[in-house]
Design goal:
171 residues, mainly alpha
Length: 171
Amino acid sequence: MRVSRVLASWRWCLLAVLAVGCAHTGPGTSTEPDSPERKEQKVRKLMALSGAEETGKQMLVAMTGHFEKMPDVPPGFMEKFREVAAEESLVDMLVPVYMRHFSEEDLDAAIAFHESPAGRRFIAAQPLVLQESMKLGEQWGLHLAQKTLRALAEEQRDLQRRPVRHEGQQL
């Protein structure tokens, strides 16, 4: 049960990271309006403006915190996990996803919003929203797990109460 709860909250962390992305910026090589390089540059700018890099770091801290609480974590796992996480860039995997699902016009509008006062306030509130969402997600996952266990126990009791029919026997 404890492992399920940890994995459920880890999934919420991962979903949050994927929704927001984790970022670093890098200059594109072309300034043509419709070039893939320019679009990638805009994606990376949006991800940076949205505070995704900091959110990604927070998610990594949350994941490692959950892993550390798990009873069966092998020795050296946490150190190796942090090392592996530092070597891989989630942003490089997310950039193509953003590029597939957002037009340049969408990216321009999102960038404009994030650069506005309302956008900056929105971003400033995200860590607290994310923190509360994670707690609610954990509670929800625990509630669903408990409800599922009760339903399974009730089904098992129902099966045990039914008389056993043997072949040829009439009840």
